[in-house]
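pipeline/complex-builder :: batch 7 item 3
reading input block
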Amino acid sequence: MTIKEKGYTHWDGELKDGRFPWWPITRFGIKLTFKRKFFKFLFALTLLPALVWLVGIYISERLEDFSFMVRGDQTDFLNVNPSYFNTYFTNDFLLFMMIMILVFCGAGLISDDLKHNALQLYFARPLKKQDYLFGKAAVIFFFLFILTLVPGLIFILMKLIFAGNFKFINSYPWLPLSIIVYSTLLTSFFALYTLLLSSVGKNRRYVAILIFGIYIFSDIFYGIFYGIFRSQYFSLLSIKVNLQQVGAVLFNQRTPQNVPWLYSLLIILGICVLSGLFLNKKVKGVEIIK
Amino acid sequence: MSVKIKDIHFSYGKVKALDGVDVDLPKGAIGLLGPNGAGKSTLLRILLGFLVPNRGEGTVLGYDIRQQQTLIRRFVGYMPEDDCFIPGMDGVSFTSYMGELSGMPRQEAMKRAHEVLFYVGLEESRYRQTETYSSGMRQRLKLAQSIVHDPKLIFLDEPTSGLDPQGRKEILELIMDISSKKDIQVLISSHILPDIEQTCSYVVILDKGKLAAQGQISELKQVQYSLYELRVKGEEKAFLKRLEETKSKVDETEDKLLRVYLPPGFNPQEIFRIAADEQVQIRHFVKSQTSLEDLFAKVVGVD
């Protein structure tokens, strides 16, 4: 006898107040992202820098085996130190690929729900606004941590394994903390930036253009204004440069621009706060019934 | 009583949306009626715990509407009026996802999703992407997601909108099955009065933020008014004017049938006296079979 013939049947389980009510949102978000065309290829491409840096760490510990590849004494670039990590975390290619990941995984996170009226489905359930937003943000955290936090910690671990001693971590005991703080800052910033833009429109393509465009054009404007006025303060217009400035400070390096890094940090935090406030206003459970 | 609210007031700024509404709903299927702007949506928002009333108190399934909104949403189901789905998901993943969000364990949610999709008649299409569903299938899917966690109370907002007659009939049958044979209360907000009449025995009618009527449909029809259908010959203008002076409401249909709503306590024989006074012949006089539409028109004061 089919269920339909039996009629409606009750469920004898118990509805539970889960500790992480946002987790199904994150899980399905990740699953749906992997289903997107070309995403797996793109994601593999974004892992390329991590692979290159990892190989660099290996070579740095086996220089004698690879001496035939090195011209003269130019082995400075294989010195694994905070600068090596800073270069990984703030390199243009990685940041650009992160933006590409955001375009794929983040553009539709809220805009698709707005377009297809799905907010009412979420908020008619025992979910708080924070659960919904955190569940969506966690999708971005998942992908960006794989590109930042995870490789950063793996680099340290591999360095220790390849070296066979703890000299590296004894020299830079603060480095793991720098990696955690910078990865969290970078990922939180991109998560809020993406969710903000995703909540602005109902069309994921339009949102994708905004995510990509604002990042790229902020840098282009910096270039234009710098070209005209020759003032490095215009670097504060660039999202990329602001992130690089803060990254350099966290990895104890000289900042790439001659501008107080605190300004960059304030701009990043300011965007985060404004995004949070906007999202709080934009995503409202009360609007579910029209 | 699963829903009990008392003296509920709510305003959007200066606009009063609900003004002292008392509702005490019995078990079974209940219709929520009212013209646009009557306060139906605000009432649903309050019952679902999205709005806290300015004044008044109440409980849904025993949970306080002011303090325990999350608990209310755990144990109620909601079928929205809008077309809503999550793109990229098939029917069974979508339904299971909704179950998980309600607090069901993952595997149980998946098992239950299959069951409810069978129940609503989407067994063949459960692995299809939801964006490829027809509007009838989406309506069923919305019903499935609202019952996947086996709620004790379901709010259905225009459950038959956009459906063809056959689809409408099937959805109504499902609703009747849920409300009559199982221990689940159903609150249906709809503009389609015959749907309410077919599925509900109890009705709540709101008008301009106030409770216009509440009770068993059969009782309300009798208490609120008596309706007569007349055909007359002669100068009907003066006759109609006289009738309206008695506070009766008269509607004329396209085929010249007069529908006269008599006020409470009005003796129908008076109609004949007025007709005689105005020298009008009454050729047809029948006490009408009153419908919910008639009741609604009378209570709300619209055609």
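note: The radius of gyration of chain B is 23 Å.
queue -> next item
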